[in-house]
Give the backbone structure.
Amino acid sequence: MKRLQALGSGVAAAALAFAGLGTAAALGTGQASGATAAANALSNQWYAAAPYLMPTDNNPPDATAIMDATGLKAFQLAFILAPNGGGCTPTWSGTSAVSSDTAVAGVISAIRAKGGDVSVSIGGYGGTKLGQACSDAASTAAAYQQVISKYQLKAIDFDLEEPEYENTAAVAHEIGAAKILQQNNPGLFVSVTTAGTAAGTGWFGQQMLNEAKSQGFTPNNFSIMPFDGGFNGAASQTAALTAFNGLLKTTFGWDTATAYAHEGFSGMNGRSDAGEYFYQADFQTVLNYATSHGMGRFTFWSLNRDRQCNPPDNGTTSGTCSSVPQASWDFAKYSVKFAGATPPSTPPPTTPPTSPPGGTCTVGQWTASAVYVGGNEVAHNGHKWKAKWWTTNEEPGTTGEWGVWQDEGAC
């Protein structure tokens, strides 16, 4: 139930700079496509461990810096949607056409240049999904095939949430498309992610499982998101995973071990949309459960949030920080462990900044009492920030539920 995806999308230069693209962002469409073609051959366990990353919204972190600091190799890029203006063609966040994209292609190139790879997630909580916009499973699959071909993907995630998963026809289109893609792209790693409840998943989640059974479709895993539904801490999450295992067994006729091998966990690090809290110790407990039961996936929403707010917990939920005390990328290290790797014990040395924090900017300093509107620029902590819309008392880079401030780089 990823409510903290950005309200608007855009492939701004600031987002590209933050993603650490270097010259890759300047590539033309053909060059960018070629640069992303050399996908690295990662094991399925890495795709199963890939945390979600919004590459163009919610103050995107530098993916390659996360790789250096944690040993992470795979990222789950979010989200592919139908165009906001209507139609059955793939876009990033409803606004940026995949066909002409160079920005996300540059992010992928940078990740692959360091030996990593990506999966792409379709759906999510907001926007219009292709399963809703396309007329049938075949046209839905054709739209997603454009994404697979453009980025030479070896993995894809179907994130089926409300309101789409309440639409029987849309779910049939998505499941049918997943089956077609699985058949037409041998070896493609396919995950299906949906809401979690104390009973495993709710009525609509069960109907989705029934649709998969009726179509004869089996993905690598079905994952639930045990947050935003009265959860609090690891014990409630592992109980939901146990219950979901029972649903997989009764739906597909699997034994316990087979059901766990096709089951996944998709958590939310820190403070959830509903005010639940999940700390590093909770992630460790769920990781222990997942590995001891032979589960098929362990991921979380999101890397954009995998850093500490200032103050660490101000009683709000942010799309750009976790609202719990942490070091940057603490939660990513649990994904690294699930993949079977060992995170570095200490972060690698960093290059001193070229300008000290609080360096001189050509715009005025941000103040908590001021009112800002879209396009206003301020200086804060040595960076220049631009407001996306009206805001007051939302500190750039740390708080603000929807990531109102766009980082335009160091002063």
Remarks:
- The two ends are 36 Å apart (CA to CA).
- The first helix runs from residue 13 to 18.
- Confidence is low (pLDDT under 50) at residues 6-35, 349-359.
